[in-house]
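testing teh design pipeline on a random one, pls ignore if ur not involved
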């Protein structure tokens, strides 16, 4: 077999790296892919991470190459150690994402490539001499963050290297907009559409009081960022007054939002909730959502 080589990313790798990224995206969320431009931009800056991105001190991307082909890649981040940086990120390093081909008959040494690349990542962390080491799987695509359960080959690499899951688990759900219940009249209740914190907000009101609201982000498919995510939106926020539990208000709100989504040309709606929040998961599944995957957030290097 030709020797494996781990080296810094070169611009000539961009198409092969994008193909590798999209293979991993496709295993998590249907009908979504990212462009070469999206991947290259992510290596330089992450403007969507407006809190943590300004804390960055250094970024580097490594690839494992064999037969002139990129078979694994990792994007590493180092955060500054000054007081402006959040305490948990201060003087920290992170594997922002790690992708590799799973073992296959036509690529029998894929595991070796992943192991060699991970050793190079840990060596870079040692050179940076940081306080703490984290890992994630935050590819520049909607819904791909944490470590999705769809990537057991990446989980095996992380765990073998000494990373441990110390955070929460989130459930990612999806529904066809056509399957959301049509809103029935609710006497005395009106709907108000405004700009919310995470997208367009639909608020149910009785008189001057708010009974609950849902926020929908329809900007997931900006063409300059994503080559193929048309028809996809997500729930940024869903809040129901506890006094309205059991009244079906959350279904009514989602039905109101569905009318707007159809006008926007959106046919799929996604949501994410903590695996521990059985109440909200019940609301969403009762409204027509089904589980797409689970993702484990918060990985820390704890060898031994």
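output:
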């Amino acid at each position: 077999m030709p020797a494996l080589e781990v080296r810094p990313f070169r611009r000539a790798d961009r198409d092969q790296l994008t193909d590798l990224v999209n293979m991993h995206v496709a295993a998590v969320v249907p009908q979504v892919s990212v462009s070469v431009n999206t991947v290259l931009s992510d290596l330089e800056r992450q403007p969507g991470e407006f809190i943590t991105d300004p804390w960055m001190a250094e970024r580097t991307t490594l690839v494992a190459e064999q037969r002139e082909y990129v078979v694994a890649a990792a994007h590493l981040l180092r955060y500054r150690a000054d007081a402006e940086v959040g305490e948990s990120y201060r003087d920290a390093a992170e594997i922002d994402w790690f992708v590799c081909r799973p073992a296959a008959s036509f690529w029998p040494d894929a595991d070796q490539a992943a192991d060699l690349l991970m050793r190079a990542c840990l060596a870079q962390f040692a050179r940076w001499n940081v306080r703490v080491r984290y890992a994630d799987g935050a590819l520049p695509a909607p819904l791909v963050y944490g470590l999705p359960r769809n990537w057991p080959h990446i989980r095996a690499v992380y765990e073998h290297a000494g990373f441990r899951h110390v955070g929460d688990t989130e459930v990612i759900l999806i529904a066809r907009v056509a399957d959301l219940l049509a809103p029935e009249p609710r006497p005395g209740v009106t709907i108000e559409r405004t700009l919310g914190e995470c997208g367009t907000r639909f608020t149910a009101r009785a008189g001057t009081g708010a009974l609950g609201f849902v926020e929908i982000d329809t900007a997931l498919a900006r063409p300059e960022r994503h080559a193929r995510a048309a028809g996809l939106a997500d729930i940024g926020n869903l809040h129901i007054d506890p006094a309205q539990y059991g009244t079906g208000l959350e279904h009514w709100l989602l039905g109101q939002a569905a009318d707007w989504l159809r006008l926007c040309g959106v046919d799929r709606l996604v949501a994410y909730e903590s695996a521990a929040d059985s109440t909200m998961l019940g609301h969403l599944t009762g409204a027509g959502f089904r589980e797409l995957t689970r993702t484990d957030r918060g990985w820390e290097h704890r060898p031994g």
